[in-house]
Write a structure and sequence with these properties.
The structure is a single chain. This protein is mainly alpha-helical. It has two domains: 1-32; 35-149, no CATH class. It has seven helices and six strands. The chain has helices at residues 6-19, 23-31, 35-42, 61-76, 79-92, 103-114, 120-130, and strands spanning 46-47, 50-51, 94-95, 101-102, 145-146, 148-149. The protein has a two-stranded antiparallel sheet. A hairpin with a 2-residue loop joins strand 1 and strand 2. Helix 3 packs across helix 7 and helix 6 crosses helix 7. The longest helix has 16 residues, at 61-76.
Length: 154
Amino acid sequence: MMTRDRARKAQARALHDATGVPYVVARRAAQQPSPLAEVMTSHPELNDFGIGVFDAHRKPRHQREDELAQKRRELAAREREVLEVADWLKANITPIATPGVGSYGLKHLIERRIGRYVTNGEAIAAALIVGYPHRYGHTTGPNGLIPVEGVDGV
């Protein structure tokens, strides 16, 4: 079957050129959705800000939708950074059953440990990619509650 999506063709060619894997293997890899894309599909309010839009109740619907779409694009563009955070979480933080640590506090811990700025959305997306249970909703604002232990300083 011929690949019609030019972006995926370019991605497959780049993977082939960089790794030397057969083009067919590279094309199949390019056709798989990324872990971040899967998480963003499952969580339509997830974006670079966190969950939802800042001060949403004071904004008209069209403005909320525009801001959400922009912030989702920003998060999608940070896939490498999100996967770096996911790798760090998997190696350093143990999940537990009951959500209790806010994503905003966890993001600050991650920043201190990896030495760079991390958005709230990156921290939430990384936790979701790793498979940590989570809880968010109208009472948590843009932050998710993530069940982790072994977190000092949060």
